[in-house]
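Table S4 entry, MarR family transcriptional regulator.
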Amino acid sequence: MRALIEYVRSGEPDLTNRQMALLMLVYQTPGPHTVRGLAKALGVSKPVVTRALNTLGALGYLRRERDQDDRRNVFVVRTNDGANFLEGFKRYLRAGDGSEQRPFIGQREKEPAFAGR
């Protein structure tokens, strides 16, 4: 929790859950990425993806790029700024109060081994 509080105080842009999910999807899955494909993967409408993409594009974290083979297609592509943002966010999470040593909410801790086994 401390890591998230420090992040909020850092002055970095606050992203919505949808924006963060879109950003992580583009960076963690192989492309090419389209608005239609991203909407399907996230289970939301294309306008929802477009709004999130507008914000992420304005921040420089993602960008739209025309397909050179078929100019009708537009791909969503990664940027250096987006990669740097995610790397910095990951550092905030890891530098927290040792939470990387504890399981995430919903994860079960490993049961201790019994001496008699």
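DSSP finds five helices and two strands in the chain.
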